[in-house]
Structures are given as structure tokens and as C-alpha cells.
Amino acid sequence: MQSSLLFLLLAPLLGVVLGHIHDFHGRKRFDSSSSEEDDLPGAGDGAIWALLVAGSNGWYNYRHQADVCHSYHVLLNHGIHPDRIITMMFDDIATHPENRFPGQLFNAPNGGDVYKGVKIDYKGNNVTPANFLAILQGQKDKVKGGNGRVIESTKNDKIFVYFSDHGAVGLIAFPTQMLTVKQLNDALKEMHAKQKYKELTFYLEACESGSMFENILKKDINVYAITAANSHESSWGCFCDNDMELPCLGDQFSVNWMTDSDNKSDLDAETLDEQFNIVKRLTDKSHVMHYGDLQIAREKVAEFQGHEKAPRRLILEQPEPEMSLWPVREIPILMLRREIDRSNDEGLKARLSKKIAQIHQKRHYLDGRIEALVRELIRDPNRQRQILKTHPRHGVTQMQCHHDVVNAFHRICFDFNENPYALKYVYVLANLCEDRIDADRVIEVLMDQCVDNDKRHSLDGRIEAALVRELIWKWCSRRPGVHQEKQIEIDSHRDEIREFEHRVTTKQSEDTANSAGSRRSASTTSPSRRSLQIYSNVDMLAMTVEELL
């Protein structure tokens, strides 16, 4: 009798508990305020992981970090646990001396502060392609700096990646380096082979972002990608002509997809394909594209952005402000012109006008260098015009050549971070590779055009392009003269220098053995080998690299 009475008293409480258990397993929901592993979404039953990346730095690029902060709140508001969200951003904008709102970022005019509450895992010089790939693939041993967090996904988990920054044909930029189409797609294929995810969705905001996936992303590796633009057009910044005295606050594609997710209280009510079509219609300055496994587009947005019902719209309030759109690569000049228009100081106007003239002069110089490169490599005028005027017809197919050439161009000619206008010409480099011109030949011409004779003379001016490339890629994180503190310190890489010296010595031995039967006398040893013999000492090699860079 007593046990029956006890059961009747406890039955309602038991029903509530069972109801919560059913809701958790049925909808994979969780308490977003809890940090206990057992409370995380899909623990043992498939989780949602997210990697959010702003790949730029500098005041002009305000919008990228604002985009990523906004996306963090979108996911958090829809129930993704913060322990499942990993963020990468340089974090130099909220505290920038030109920021009229210290410690705050805005993704829309007079909207909410999106910086507040964002946990940043990788900042400053730790925002690198190597870290991005290591985090994505769950390789804790390969991460350098930051807090060491990586995506610890399994074959049952889903991954959402959002990246916002500059881009070009076959590459997306990071603060001092870039990630090429080869690197990204190799990583995705390897992740699939190792069963690192069930499905992966990638939202990419960058100029010519379609080129990272067009005719490259395989349809059978469970990856679905949406890009802000096709493979040959710019993406657009938005809220550029704002009255907050700030740069462009966002990017059109990014603000559109996040606003759509903000507006939907329940993301289980919308599919990825529906979101794609909404964003494609609203993004009228570029062609939003999608690639990969289009079957994934039939799934609900909630499967990648969270199942919780959002209580309210986070960022924008009705009515929505005018977007005031600017093409991304013209933003530096347009910002200066806006400042001129708003100023009554004639002296300031003159200084700003001079800056604009200097930018145009630098661009004119770059235009000439690209044309000279093509003329040197291709003699036929018709082919020259085709290389200079058209984008690759079938995307980037010669991925190793593309990877080598764009890295060399970035290292020894024009740092893409310091010269974002140079990104517009990456399609020319891609065309040279698609035309089956050898990568070492292209790099050799780049050396001739971009490295001063006196610097090249320090290596006798004759070292083979491939070996010079090895030196440059190993030791140069940036061209000298800007942000010296970011230079790689050669003294901290003595072991790697010795390894490189060993490789050079091995190559010399192999070359000597291969040419033994050619009856070539010792007096005809190539200048390249003589130069390498001169610099065989480790310390001398290090000093030579410093001189070259």
C-alpha cells in the first residue's frame, strides 16, 4: 500500500524526467549554459561542430571580423554549445585606435554589438592556414599557439565552416599567408577518408570564391559548399556609407545568410536549399553559387546551425537600413573618397587625394609587371591576350602548379595582404598553369622581375629557381619593411636549416652521379652548384637567406 502510494506521488515527476530525456534524444538539444561533456549536443549520438574564421586584419577589413562575431551569435542563439564552436580572428579591430566604439563591433548600422561575448580561440599571428587545416582535421599535435582547441568530430558528427576574407582564383587569404584550392580540397578528401564527419557544410565569403570548389569539390565526400560569388567575380561589402564613421560593416552575402537565420526562430523549418535560394535572390551584386553534394541541401538548416528556437532577432531591427554596397577591391579608395567628401579641412583633403594617387600609381606598376610576365613567358600575341583577359574556363585543374606559383608571387613580388589589389591578377597566374607552362619557369621569371639585382647577386644570381623557392618559402612569412615583429626568426630554425642543407647536399650528389657518364669536365660545374658550395656552412646559409629577404 505504501509503495503504491509512493509510486503515485512520484509518477508526475518521473513523467517530466522521461519527457526531458525523450526531447534530448529526439531533437539533440541541450542546455547551452552547461559546459559538462554529457550535456553537449549529440554526445555519443552525433554532434554539430563549427569553425568560424575571419582571415584578414587591418582597419579597412573591419567587416570580416564583424561577420564572424555575428555568426558566432547566430549559432549560439540557435543552441550550438560554445564548446563546439572554434573561432579564428586577428582581433585588432575592436581595440583599433580608429574605432569610435572601443571594444565593440557592429555588423549593421546602429545594430547590436556583436563582439560582446565572443570567445576567440586563435588570435593574431596564430590565424594561419596551417592552424586552420589542423583545427578542421582535429590534429592537436599540429596546432601552434591559441588555446589548442580543435574539432574533435567523429563519423557521426556534422561540421559547419564559415570563412570571411579576401580571395582570388584558387585561394583564400589569411593575415600573412594564403590557403590554396589544393590545400583545402586535399584536406577535405583526407577528412572523408578518415571518417572525420558525417556531413560538412562550408559557407565561403570571398571574391572569386566559387573557384575554390568549381569542378574540384567531389560530390561523393558528403561536403556541401555555398559561395558568395562565382569563380570570376568580386564579392561586395555592405553598409559601407554608414554614419558611424566606420568602414564597411559587413559583406552582402554574409549579412544575408545570417539575417535569414536570425529571422527564423526555428531553423528546422527551413532547408539549406531554401536558405541558398533566399540568399541568392537577395545578393544581387554577385552570383551566389553552391557545389558538392547537393543532396545535403535538402536537409534542415538546423542540422548545421542549431536546433534551438531563437527567442529574438539578434542584430538588425526593422526597417532594414540601406545596404550601400561597395566592390571589395575598391573599398580602400572608396573609403578615402568618402572621407574627402565629408571633410572641410583642405589640408586633409589634399593628403587623402595624394594617398589615392599613390594607390593608383602602385596599381599601374602592378599592371605593368603582370603584362611583362606574360610577354616573357608567351610569345604569341593572341595567347597573351587570352591569358590576360579571360579566367580559367574549367576552374583550377593544375593545382600543384597553381599552389607553387601563387605562393612564389606572394613571397617575392607582392604580398597579398599588403597589396590586396594584386589578388585580382591571380587568375593570370592560374591561366599560365592551365597553359601547361612549367611552374619553375614562371618562378624564375618572377625572380628576374621582382628581386633586385643586388639582392640576387648575394647568391651569385644563379641559384636554380626551385632551390630559391625553398629558401623563400621556409624563411619568409612577409616581405621585410612592414610589421618586422612578424618576421620568422631564422635563428629559431637552425635544425630546419641543417635539414635543408642536407637536402641540397643530397641533390648535389645525385646530380653529380647522374652526370658522371656525360664526360662533362669539373670546370663546367654549373654556377648554381658553385653558389651552393660557397654557402654550405649553416651560419652562412642563414645570413644569405636574411640578405635575400
Automatic annotation (TrEMBL):
Record: active site: H166, C207
Protein transport found in the keyword field: no
Feature: compositional bias, Low complexity: 512-529
Keywords in alphabetical order: Hydrolase, Protease, Signal, Thiol protease
Domain Legumain prodomain: 354-450
Region feature Disordered, mapped onto this chain: 502-529
MF annotations from Gene Ontology: cysteine-type endopeptidase activity
Signal sequence segment: 1-19
Broad enzyme group: hydrolase
One of the protein's GO biological processes: vacuolar protein processing
Reaction catalyzed: Hydrolysis of proteins and small molecule substrates at -Asn-|-Xaa- bonds
GO terms under cellular component: vacuole
Keyword Hydrolase attributed: yes
EC number(s) reported in the record: 3.4.22.34
InterPro entries according to UniProt: AE, Legum_prodom, Legumain_prodom_sf, Peptidase_C13
Superkingdom field: Eukaryota
Family stated for the protein in its record: Belongs to the peptidase C13 family.
Name of the protein in question: legumain
Organism annotation: Steinernema hermaphroditum
